[in-house]
Amino acid sequence: MLNKKVEKAINEQIKKEEFSSRLYLSMAIWCEVNGFPGAASFLYRQSDEERMHQLKFVHYTNDRGGSAALMSLEKPEAEFNSLLEVFQKVMKHEQFITESINELYGITLEEKDYTTGNFLQWYINEQIEEESTMSTILDKISLVGNDKSGMFHIDKELEAMTAAAPAP
Ligand code: OFO
Can you give the pTM of this predicted structure? Predict the structure, then answer.
């Protein structure tokens, strides 16, 4: 049976993963209507990934004799000034998620729930990968500044990255 304190913390995390999915969906929409189709594909895919992260927690909770519960979500931000701002916010959000996964991991240790701690390793590794991808993208966007042709190439690169990535 899943420890109650751990179950509660996982349900909070389920909410955060669901919010991440909606936030990236909102960002994808902004990119699509503002002339960044590659960034839009990348973020639509990122949104699907977050949904997968959420579902992985849902199944784990239910399989361990707990019960996954959904919570209400706040409306994600929908207006941005630039592609740079979008990715700065993605980065900030991923850092917040990393912190949250680490806190969750801390709770599993306090509660001596090593099985859940072990399960969380996947998320810990995923966060390292995602922060590194986002930081590479951010560096590139910062480098081109307002150069239109540079921006066009970055958008193409994001399209190619999305096409090359395995489905979530
Ligand atoms: Fe990288 O956000 Fe989910 O876990």
Answer: 0.96
